[in-house]
């Protein structure tokens, strides 16, 4: 692959792409990884095998609804949680894999092409900091939920002498204590961690991508605001006006490219956004029902609460980031107005004013990312979706 000029955003996304690649997602980076070729060939084969086995793993969980008969109330509830969440969560990897080429192209634009023209270092630092915070918090919440479910199953084994069943599949039966059955449970438990690594990689990719997109609008706003500095130089007025006009036209091109990147990001992430909305509503209803009906122990409560927190955090980060894209895009027209057009005089002023008005008109059109094709992703809609889960639960109980 070609090599591109470096910057902090590119260095950051190299690490993100490498991490998600090791988590089992496709290699969508714009350059070659600094890994041995033999390792990547072997790892690609291993990843393909595991990804196909995970389809079988999810299928065995679904069949368990019809074959597992001697389940406790908690095991029935856990099976329902996994049966609802796992197919949706694993579809995220499928969606991103299907859009691999589109993702590589939009990354090239966001981290290289647009940054070549203008890159506000302060905005870049904010983007990296926010991406790290959001993605780290989300992955940590997922790991915490898995830890509590594991610990709860271990305590259940110690207290009751039951078999170790964190995930419930059609085989082995929960009452089967044979060596082969115990070995199968361990294998499925390990597959569960492989499964969650794919989910974590998908979450990290979407969060970092949407954070970078929203900060691209912030970067573009900084570009237009800095055009005013042209008139503080010692050039002749005519030269300054020409520089401003040329610079404003460059800003228009950047805006058009950013809007194109927004459409591409929406296409890449739309399946994940839609799946997360459905998952949030269904899983919160099931988890709240679980808290009402399950055994009231501290570990069980922590396991349920950590799962609910992971769902709320993941949905929140998706919708908050998407909402930030809308907010930052809406502020762009004000930056254009403050770009310094009023410093132009005479015939140049007439040309510039027409250019600024038309550009501001286009910038004032709302930029909205949607889930399920109809739900605007924003802070307000996030609250509405969370409240809807409580509404559904109140109808059931």
UniProtKB/TrEMBL annotation:
> What GO molecular function annotations does the UniProt record carry, in alphabetical order?
odorant binding; olfactory receptor activity
Residues passing through the membrane, by range: 12-29, 49-67, 132-151, 186-213, 272-292, 298-320
Where is the protein localized?
Cell membrane
Keyword Manganese included in the entry's annotation: no
* GO CC, one annotated term: plasma membrane
Record's keyword terms, sorted: Cell membrane, Membrane, Olfaction, Receptor, Sensory transduction, Transducer, Transmembrane, Transmembrane helix
Pfam families (UniProt xref): 7tm_6
Q: How does it sit in the membrane?
A: Multi-pass membrane protein
Q: Name one GO biological process term.
A: signal transduction
Kindly indicate whether the keyword Transmembrane helix belongs to this entry: yes
What's the main place this protein lives? membrane
Give the matching InterPro entries: 7tm6_olfct_rcpt (IPR004117)
Family classification: Belongs to the insect chemoreceptor superfamily. Heteromeric odorant receptor channel (TC 1.A.69) family.
**Protein name per UniProt:** Odorant receptor
Q: Which species expresses this protein natively? A: Manduca sexta
What does the record give as the organism's lineage?
Eukaryota, Metazoa, Ecdysozoa, Arthropoda, Hexapoda
């Amino acid at each position: 692959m070609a090599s591109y000029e470096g910057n902090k955003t590119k260095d950051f996304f190299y690490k993100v792409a490498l991490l998600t690649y090791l988590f089992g997602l496709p290699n969508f980076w714009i350059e070659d990884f600094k890994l041995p070729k033999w390792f990547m060939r072997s790892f690609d084969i291993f990843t393909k095998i595991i990804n196909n086995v995970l389809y079988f793993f999810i299928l065995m969980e679904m069949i368990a609804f019809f074959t597992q008969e001697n389940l406790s109330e908690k095991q029935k509830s856990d099976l329902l949680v996994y049966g609802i969440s796992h197919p949706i969560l694993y579809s995220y990897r499928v969606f991103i894999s299907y859009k691999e080429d589109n993702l590589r192209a939009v990354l090239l634009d966001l981290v290289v092409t647009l940054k070549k023209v203008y890159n506000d270092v302060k905005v870049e630092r904010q983007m990296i900091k926010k991406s790290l915070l959001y993605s780290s918090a989300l992955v940590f919440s997922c790991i915490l939920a898995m830890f509590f479910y594991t610990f709860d199953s271990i305590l259940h084994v110690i207290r009751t002498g039951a078999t170790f069943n964190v995930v419930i599949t059609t085989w082995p039966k929960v009452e089967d204590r044979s060596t082969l059955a115990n070995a199968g449970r361990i294998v499925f438990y390990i597959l569960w961690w492989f499964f969650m690594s794919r989910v974590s990689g998908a979450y990290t990719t979407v969060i970092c991508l949407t954070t970078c997109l929203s900060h691209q609008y912030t970067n573009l706003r900084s570009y237009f605001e800095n055009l005013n500095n042209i008139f503080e130089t010692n050039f002749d007025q005519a030269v300054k006006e020409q520089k401003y006009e040329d610079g404003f036209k460059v800003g228009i091109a950047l805006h058009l490219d950013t809007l194109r990147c927004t459409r591409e990001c929406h296409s890449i992430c739309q399946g994940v956004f839609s799946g997360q909305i459905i998952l949030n509503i269904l899983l919160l209803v099931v988890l709240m029902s679980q808290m009402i009906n399950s055994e009231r122990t501290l570990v069980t409560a922590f396991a349920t609460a950590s799962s609910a927190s992971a769902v709320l955090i993941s949905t929140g980060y998706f919708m908050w980031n998407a909402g930030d894209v809308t907010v930052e895009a809406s502020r762009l027209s004000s930056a254009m107005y403050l770009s310094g057009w009023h410093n132009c005089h005479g015939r140049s002023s007439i040309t510039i004013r027409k250019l600024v008005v038309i550009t501001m008109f286009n910038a004032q059109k709302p930029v909205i990312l949607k889930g399920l094709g109809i739900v605007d992703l924003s802070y307000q809609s996030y609250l509405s979706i969370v409240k809807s889960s409580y509404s559904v639960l109140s109808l059931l109980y």
